[in-house]
Design goal:
The complex is a heterodimer of chains A (133) and B (158).
Chain A lengths: L4 H11 L2 H10 L6 H5 L6 H13 L3 E3 L8 E3 L1 H47 L11
Antiparallel strand pairs in A: 1-2
Helix pairs in contact in A: 1-4, 1-5
Chain B lengths: L6 E6 L2 E8 L3 H9 L1 H7 L6 E8 L6 E8 L4 E12 L3 E8 L8 E10 L2 E9 L3 H11 L5 H12 L1
Antiparallel strand pairs in B: 1-2, 2-8, 3-4, 4-5, 5-6, 6-7, 7-8
The chains are: A mainly alpha (133), B alpha+beta (158).
């Protein structure tokens, strides 16, 4: 399934915040409860819950069934969609820039030839033998 | 020859930043980014596309217009206006595609920094709306990208 732009928007919006990225990095190592997620941050549980809500809406995390802890876990799919898109973008520009490298190399060669020609012009020319009459 | 790495990051929900080094002085890179006869040789995207139209009026308030065409005759056009122009270090321009024009323009900021003959170009693409992002995704989704590597290698070793 192709990601919709709306889904990508939600993904990128969710990823724009450093706390949320840190939460995702933590969840990449395994599921965790809200209390466990709040621990490394100087933040209240409600503040963390707010971030979790954003991540959940973007489909980046889900809740486990365990009634008490309700552990959050990472949902890898939307993240993969987002990186796929960046990857496609990157490939197009890699192609463009590789051609640009070739253009620049040509410009440098041309400049070098011009400089060489100027240097040659400044040198005294080898004297031609004059034919005597 | 090893190709310098192209870094692509998304620092915010509407921004995309590309960074790449080029083995040439800044003025030369700036020329290659802004002179039509040079731009049309590399700004081609996926394989099979040429750039029959490449008009650039390089001054603040000046417009640029690009049209690409593929072997089937399909065309894709875009253009915009230069908002800032500081040769050879900075260029800010609006950008919108004909097909996907939505009333929201993308703002593209290009910065060139030179260190010992190597120029780092960073391009920040700031999308105005979700629709504008759509256009970018559609363009990015164009098929047949892998084949471009072969063609590009040929071009480089020629």
């Amino acid at each position: 399934m192709k990601p919709t732009s709306y889904a990508l928007d939600a993904t990128f919006a969710a990823l724009a915040d450093p706390t949320r990225r840190a939460i995702l990095a933590r969840l990449a190592t395994g599921e965790a409860s809200v209390a466990e997620l709040a621990e490394p941050f100087a933040m209240s549980q409600p503040a963390i819950s707010k971030h979790l809500k954003v991540l959940e809406r973007a489909g980046l995390i889900s809740r486990g069934r365990e009634a008490q802890r309700r552990p959050r876990r990472l949902e890898p799919r939307p993240l993969a969609d987002a990186t796929d898109w960046i990857e496609r973008y990157r490939r197009i520009w890699e192609g463009n820039y590789k051609r640009l490298d070739a253009v620049l190399q040509e410009l440098k060669d041309k400049q070098r030839r011009t400089v060489d020609a100027l240097v040659d012009e400044g040198k005294p020319r080898p004297k031609k033998k004059r034919r005597t009459r | 020859m090893k190709q310098p790495a192209l870094k692509v990051t998304t620092p915010s929900e509407r921004e995309l930043v590309m960074t790449r080094e080029f083995a040439a002085p800044r003025g030369m890179v700036f020329d290659a980014l802004t002179k039509p006869e040079l731009v049309r040789r590399w700004l081609l995207g996926p394989p099979g596309w040429t750039m029959p139209v490449c008009d650039i009026d390089l001054r603040v308030g000046g417009k640029y217009r690009y049209v690409w065409r593929n072997a089937d005759g399909r065309e894709m056009g875009m253009g915009g206006t230069f908002k800032e122009m500081v040769r050879p270090s900075r260029l800010v321009a609006t950008e919108s595609y004909d097909d996907h024009w939505t009333g929201g323009e993308t703002l593209v900021t290009t910065e060139l920094v030179e260190t010992r003959g190597t120029t780092t170009v960073s391009t920040t693409v700031r999308y105005a709306t979700r629709e504008a992002r759509d256009a970018a995704i559609k363009m990015g989704a164009t098929k047949g990208l892998e084949a471009s590597y072969v063609r590009l290698d040929e071009l480089l070793t020629a």
